[in-house]
Amino acid sequence: MSTDTGAGPDTAPDAGGDGAGDRPRPARRWAVPWTAVLALAPFALLGAAFRFGRLVRPGADDWCFLPVVRDEGALGMLAKFYLHDNGRVANALLVVGYGAFGVPGHQWFAPVSGAVVLGVLWALTAAALGRAGLTAPRGAVPLVAATATAAFLLATPDTYKTFYWPANSVSHTLAPVLACAAVIPLLRARTRRGHALASATALVAGVFIGTLSEETTVVACVVLGTVLLTGLRTPPGPGRTRIRSWCAVALAGLATGTAVLYLSPGARARRARFGADTGSMLDPEALGAALRVFGEILGTVLTTWPYLGAVAAGVLLGLSARGGDRPADRRRPLLPVLAGLLAFLVSGYLCVVVTRPVLGADVATASRVWGDFLLLYVLLLTGTGVLLGRAVAPRVRRPAPRTAAAVVAAAGCVLACAGLAGPLLRLEREMAVRAHDWDHQDRWLRDRAARGARVLPYAPVPVGGMLEPFGGHGRRVWPAPCVARYYHLDEVTYSPRLPRGGPGAPGTAPARPA
Fold first, then answer.
1. Cross-strand pairs, 499
2. Strands 491-494 and 497-499
3. Three-state SS at 338
4. Is 494 helix (H, G, I), strand (E, B) or coil?
5. What counts of helices (H) and strands (E) characterise the chain?
6. Residue 366 class from Cβ within 10 Å (0-12 exposed, 13-18 middle, 19+ buried)?
7. Measured CA angle at 396 (ends 390, 398), to 5 deg
8. Band of pLDDT at residue 34, cut at 50, 70 and 90
9. What's this model's pTM, rounded to 2 decimal places?
């Protein structure tokens, strides 16, 4: 169905058919451990990234979320989001999921969410192969999933906020992954009951995504619309009818969730704070400014070369996959690529339109909020690589050229992982320094608060461009009141120096610049 697990395909004819496939193919048996060994590169990179999650400490919005979860529980957090902040009730539920565990919840968020991303992309790749009637060597599907995961999580200019900061990740990193997870039951469905389950999943997922992330909702709607339009070119039949009905159910779920969010008191309050009414977003001047901002984002994304690792992994999968050859697909190999490219460009631009009223021109540099459409970009690159490999395979029938093409693609995967490793290691060193400083100040503040202090100094300990109380050398106060509540204090004041010595010890030590 999806991945090759044993003896049968080892002696199957080669797709490309020059007669050589009638002989047993030892090269096929060699490819099994080779793809598995190659997969160690992205898995090692992800393993290191997951391990560095132990260095995460609360910051920015986390300071305000943690006291609410601690003091008021899940209902308090739901009320905060729905009534006051932004209306994202699904977001509130995910915040409770990690915030209920305090600091350890933040430390475990990266490895757990990273494993979810990897698992979803792994299952999605295997399901897509099965639906296409393809088989692949052992290790090929994990290689593609791990490389795509590494590119999605680590190739952005601000990995800390994209991957390690839970408050951002649940809205802009996990949200599109959860939307992808809803597609897997559709790809796996073979019976009427399976299709009913897939539709029910689409409805629930649509409502959840609609109350989790406006930007992911936009991307999902554009992708679903693209699928419906491109499906008009396929012959009528039960398959097209089921896909169209599934898309309709998913759109209904997204519309329901969006209505709940948009009409919530929290969303109205947020629009009032930022002046982000629908008319201002659709003003011609605003649309033109959003287009210029999206052009800047594209300039950054398209010149980030480690994303090419997703293409290379896709090429390897396309070269090694067998079966599923349909002449109609070979005559129109560019149709899915062009449709995907159009969906990426339209959804990315619309995400900027939606986000710009809140972040302004900073959207061009706030890569933490690009994840909603960057996952589609990574999947598009991977799918393009698979189609490229499938197109090249029948034209390169002799072992030497085929091996050369595979070696080049394998080198691309390894180089992409190496390119992502350097910035990740530098970030790890910054996170280690911040974790040490944060823990030291945390112990000091808790000790002084336990002794009855009501007002204490706080020195900013930033990392990855995160907002901290008294950033900008004391000029930015937020979220100082949340820090005070977290430590059961009346107020925290600005200090340019960290506390010196152990808890309760007098004196201070210089803090890092905020």
1. 508
2. unpaired
3. helix
4. strand
5. 23, 4
6. buried
7. 135
8. confident
9. 0.89
